[in-house]
Design brief:
seven-stranded parallel β-sheet, Rossmann fold
Length: about 425
């Protein structure tokens, strides 16, 4: 890390995400220390939650809320690694949120001095060896909650296990999403007596958000008409978009919302050119306060943070990532809204996608022809669509409770009891 940080600082001007991450970490320790001087109450316990990126930050949000109900007197610090979590970090619910300082002894010791946490809780996958070591040396609890690990993860390689093994062995408890995950963490050196199966807090976070959804939000008003059904495609990549546009140009019995995973100006421009070349009409998503008629074939979402709400107007949802190498994105949000979910064949990274298929709420397509056939069937058969939507919502409801079980691990470990 000592060698890497100077190199990252030199490279930062060449990459916007890297620049934001380096800049955020440079200010993080100073900001955390200032918060501690002004607001840290040493009479109150403190939980330090860490998540790698935006998805894990949303899981941390649900876990933090459940932990607060069990320890209303506690204070909370939330840190993240990726710049993509910047926009959601303030919504997690912590008393202070920001970047994780560099995992170097000086920085970590200063952060621990400032916060004096009773527990450091890592969410999902990412643990940092120096933070774990220094917290354990002070007698603080270290836990990994809502933990998942793929069978082909690089963490299971010999070199990674040699490097990270001491940190995993120092964890006081691991709350794994499934029994399969728990078995893999045992291979990393976590004693089996410290492994627990909790389920996935992602379901709780999404369910809570769905319950707060305002169907009268101005963003959704233009979609409320008696026209063709809506297919909402979320987190799409170019491979997904090519299939969707082709299917749309041949069917025209439904309308399409496309929310790219990375709605950069260049991506949006190329997407518009592809739609126009297919002979389809389009427009970009209206602003919340804009009165607009959506009498077009395709609506393009050119901003972040609105996809979860847009799933509420979908008759059928398409989740992107199943035709590339980035991995399938979350199918839980549309499922929680009772919307049938369609996705591509490469979904091994998202185990809930296969379980949703088995439950009757998810549908896997192999190519453009099967996509057209599946959308035609779901849109044309109202009963089949309703049954699939009901199965999708029931699937989410059956998997609630992971956030509460993760919170129990944090609170019981922090209090020195076996979870």
């Amino acid at each position: 890390m000592r060698a890497t940080v100077p190199a990252l600082r030199l490279a930062a001007p060449l990459n916007e995400r890297l620049r934001r991450g380096v800049h955020g970490r440079r200010l993080a320790l100073e900001s955390l220390t200032a918060w501690s001087r002004a607001h840290r109450d040493p009479r109150r316990p403190l939980v330090w939650l860490h998540a790698p990126s935006v998805g894990e930050a949303l899981m941390a949000q649900a876990i933090l809320a459940e932990t607060r109900t069990r320890m209303p007197e506690a204070q909370f610090v939330f840190t993240h690694f990726s710049p993509s979590a910047e926009r959601v970090a303030p919504t997690v619910g912590a008393d202070w949120s920001g970047y994780l300082p560099w995992d170097r002894p000086h920085d970590i010791r200063a952060a621990l001095d400032a916060t004096s946490p009773g527990c450091v809780a890592f969410v999902r996958t990412e643990i940092w060896p120096v933070l774990v070591r220094e917290a354990a040396a002070r007698g603080r609890a270290n836990v990994l909650v809502n933990a998942a690990l793929a069978g082909d993860s690089s963490r299971l390689g010999r070199g990674a296990r040699l490097l990270l093994g001491p940190a995993y062995r120092r964890l006081d408890a691991v709350g794994a999403v499934t029994g399969e995950d728990a078995a893999l963490f045992a291979l990393l050196g976590v004693p089996r007596s410290r492994l627990h199966v909790t389920g996935d807090a992602r379901f709780d976070q999404v369910w809570q958000r769905v319950q707060r959804l305002d169907p009268a939000r101005p963003l959704l008003r233009p979609f409320r008409d008696d026209g063709r059904p809506w297919v909402v495609a979320g987190s799409s990549w170019p491979a997904d978009e090519e299939l969707l546009i082709e299917a749309m140009s041949l069917a025209r019995s439904w309308r399409l919302v496309i929310a790219p995973h990375e709605p950069s100006p260049d991506h949006i421009d190329r997407l518009e050119q592809r739609i126009a070349a297919a002979g389809l009409t389009y427009r970009r998503l209206p602003a919340d306060d804009e009165e607009a008629a959506l009498d077009v074939d395709v609506v393009i979402v050119d901003r972040m943070g609105v996809l979860a709400d847009l799933y509420a107007i979908a008759d059928v949802a398409y989740v992107g990532g199943g035709f590339g190498t980035a991995g399938l994105h979350s199918v839980v949000e549309p499922a929680a809204l009772g919307v049938p979910v369609v996705y591509g064949p490469r979904h091994g990274n998202a185990r809930e996608a296969e379980r949703l298929r088995i439950a009757g709420g998810g549908f896997v397509i192999a190519d453009g022809a099967t996509l057209r056939s599946m959308l035609t069937r779901l849109i044309g058969d109202e009963t089949a669509r309703a049954n699939a939507g009901t199965a999708a919502r029931r699937f989410v409801q059956q998997h609630l409770g992971g956030a509460a079980r993760s919170a129990e691990i944090i609170t019981e470990t922090m209090r020195g009891r076996t979870p």
